[in-house]
Backbone:
């Protein structure tokens, strides 16, 4: 490979939960094998790069958070490039390739990446490589892997064009191959063909040529179906393309048991953490309901915590104590749980830009790290599987792990790891000869993320109290998991409030005795938009089936209190569409009738999807069907009266259906085609009059 092609490119990433950073690190790591050097920075580190003066190609990896926002680490740059005074040729000198990460279950898929991509184009930047949009709903790797594969040739072509056009202007550099003078074309084409041959050579050198030759490794005749631990032809007999082994960069030193663990406030980067007691817990569903839904009331009176109806907040939750103990046992560290460990960057590591993980204390007990800092339930990424290969002594287990992280094993990875939510403990049970080191876990397991919940109360209606509602998440049993799992946070909360729930069942008093002594750590996550209209005379419609009703209870409580205190105010009509499976099992808030009787709620429309109809006419099953039933009222409120429309709940099975219903209603009422109606809905979203708080 020509030495003049060993060139630098700028690599920027913007991440919310670490995925974009991990992909950027993979690109950085592979760059060396292709004779390139990645100058990698987080997008927030604007003092370390300057796009206005950047001459080399720029590679961007950016995720999306919320309902379509760029990650927090991208906000400074996004704000800067959104400046309307910038001229259209501001980035005419810039060549870039962008990889966006998102989830198609959300309306604004990959919007973080699309926003940056669109704005760079508007400011004259040119793509040297096509934009990739990876979908976490089906597996990021389906787009990420081939996008990275194609990146190297695109970069080298970009460098080659720069060299061939060395004397040209910045804008000319970005022209296509067809604009190169004729006498240069044959030479340039031959060089690009040579690059392609070299790239194929690099890829083939990374192939792991390994066959199953040990008779003990052959899948038994009766196991003709693949599984997490077994493979079948063709993959079991294939040479494998496996990722490069990530260099280790963390060093862990065990110390004594003296000292104190850091406070939970150290687990978040900004804002205050409040540890608040539970004053009430109620099971809102019957025992025979498909899902168990709980309401928890917190006492925030002794804090400065504040909220508005429609806000969310985050709970800092621990990993399951039994799983932490099992992990310590499997790692052979049961006796070390209470020992303090000092975590440092390994001297002489080959990992470029290696830094101490921000979510890991420099000194704490091992149990604190495994309980509060690492997401031990995280689905292992392929780079982690590759690292686990080196910790596995059994040849058959080693081979299977290689298959699962290989290019050839992509479908097996999706089927046996991603879809069933396999975690590290599942792998260690399935591959008993795998014994990873503690530093490997710290390097590869992501941060244990706080869990977000919608507030289901009004501080005006219940001063000093805050309520929230949630379903207990259940994960089914798995071959390496004998019993079903509860969600990390919902399972912990349910166990925590168990005494109060038990007291409720044995007492006529719904409050069920004294508050719990154990407290829940929370911090604020205020919403910018999901609030009641500033003008109370504006009509509004709310759609919230199941636990999606949660924020609307706060809305109604707030409105009721305002109506009591502000007799002279005018209040617009309020609609609530609620749905659940069974009226007698999971109708979460039957006291909605009280809001209806007081006039706070003008219209309450409910539906029950699993109840058999009592009448000959089949009633609507789902809230989207109910919305269609009141098409004229929806159109009147949205098109004529400037009203607001709120949707909260499941994204895939409900929110999309509701938006489709609204589009159909607008189309019919306006006498316009569907495309025009979709534009109207987009305008309503832009005006913050069609608002969603949804989850997948």
Residues:
């Amino acid at each position: 490979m020509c030495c003049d092609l060993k060139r630098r490119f700028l690599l920027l990433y913007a991440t919310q939960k670490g995925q974009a950073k991990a992909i950027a690190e993979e690109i950085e790591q592979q760059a060396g094998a292709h004779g390139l050097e990645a100058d990698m920075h987080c997008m927030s580190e604007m003092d370390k790069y300057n796009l206005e003066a950047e001459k080399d190609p720029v590679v961007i990896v950016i995720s999306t958070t919320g309902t379509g926002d760029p990650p927090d680490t991208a906000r400074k740059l996004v704000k800067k490039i959104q400046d309307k005074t910038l001229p259209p040729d501001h980035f005419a000198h810039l060549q870039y390739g962008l990889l966006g990460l998102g989830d198609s279950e959300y309306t604004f898929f990959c919007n973080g990446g699309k926003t940056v991509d669109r704005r760079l184009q508007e400011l004259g930047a040119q793509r040297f490589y096509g934009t990739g949009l990876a979908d976490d709903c089906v597996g990021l790797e389906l787009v990420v892997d081939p996008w990275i594969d194609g990146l190297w040739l695109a970069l080298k072509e970009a460098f080659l064009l720069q060299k061939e056009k060395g004397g040209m202007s910045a804008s000319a550099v970005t022209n296509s191959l067809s604009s190169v003078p004729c006498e240069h074309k044959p030479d340039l084409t031959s060089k690009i063909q040579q690059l392609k041959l070299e790239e194929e050579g690099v890829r083939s050198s990374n192939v792991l040529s390994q066959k199953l030759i040990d008779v003990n490794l052959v899948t038994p005749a009766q196991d003709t179906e693949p599984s997490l631990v077994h493979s079948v032809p063709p993959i079991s007999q294939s040479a494998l393309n496996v990722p490069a082994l990530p260099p280790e960069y963390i060093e862990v030193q065990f110390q004594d048991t003296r000292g104190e663990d850091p406070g939970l406030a150290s687990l978040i980067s900004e804002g205050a953490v409040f540890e608040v007691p539970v004053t009430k817990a109620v099971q809102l569903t019957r025992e025979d309901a498909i899902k168990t839904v709980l309401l928890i009331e917190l006492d925030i009176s002794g804090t400065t915590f504040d909220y508005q109806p429609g806000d969310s907040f985050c709970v800092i939750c621990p990993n399951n104590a039994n799983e932490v103990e099992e992990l310590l046992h499997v790692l052979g560290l049961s006796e070390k749980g209470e020992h303090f460990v000092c975590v440092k960057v390994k001297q002489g590591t080959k990992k470029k830009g290696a830094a101490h993980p921000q979510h890991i204390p420099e000194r704490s007990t091992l149990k604190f790290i495994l309980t509060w800092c690492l997401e031990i339930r995280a689905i292992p990424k392929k780079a982690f599987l590759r690292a686990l290969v080196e910790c596995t002594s059994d040849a058959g287990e080693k081979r299977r792990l290689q298959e699962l992280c290989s290019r050839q094993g992509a479908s097996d990875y999706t089927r046996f790891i991603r879809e069933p939510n396999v975690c590290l403990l599942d792998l260690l049970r399935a591959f008993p000869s795998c014994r990873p080191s503690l530093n490997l876990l710290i390097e590869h397991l992501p941060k244990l993320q706080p869990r977000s919940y919608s507030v289901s109360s009004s501080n005006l209606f219940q001063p000093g109290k805050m309520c929230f509602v949630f379903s207990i998440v259940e994960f089914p049993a798995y071959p390496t998991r004998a019993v079903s799992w509860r969600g990390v946070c919902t399972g912990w909360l349910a166990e925590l409030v168990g005494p109060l729930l038990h007291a409720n069942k044995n007492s006529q008093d719904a409050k069920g005795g004294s508050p719990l002594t154990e407290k829940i750590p929370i911090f604020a996550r205020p919403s910018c938009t999901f609030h009641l209209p500033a003008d109370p005379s504006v009509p509004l419609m709310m759609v919230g089936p199941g636990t999606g009703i949660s924020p609307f209870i706060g809305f109604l409580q707030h409105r009721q209190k305002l109506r009591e205190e502000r007799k002279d105010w005018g209040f617009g009509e309020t609609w609530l569409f609620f749905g659940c499976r069974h009226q007698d099992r999971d109708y979460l808030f039957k006291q909605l009738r009280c809001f209806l009787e007081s006039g706070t709620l003008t219209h309450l429309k409910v539906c029950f999807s699993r109840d058999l109809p009592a009448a000959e006419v089949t009633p609507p099953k789902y809230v989207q069907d109910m919305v269609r039933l009141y098409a004229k009222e929806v159109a009147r409120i949205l098109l004529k009266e400037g009203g607001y429309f709120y949707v909260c709940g499941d994204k895939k099975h409900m929110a999309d259906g509701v938006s489709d219903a609204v589009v159909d209603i607008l189309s019919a009422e306006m006498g316009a085609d569907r495309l025009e109606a979709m534009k109207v809905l987009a305008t309503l979203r832009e005006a913050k009059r069609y608002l969603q708080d949804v989850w997948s």
Notes: The CA atoms of residues 560 and 598 lie 8 Å apart. DSSP finds 22 helices and 24 strands in the chain. Residues 1-5, 168-192, 203-221, 508-512 have pLDDT under 50 and may be disordered. The first helix runs from residue 19 to 31.
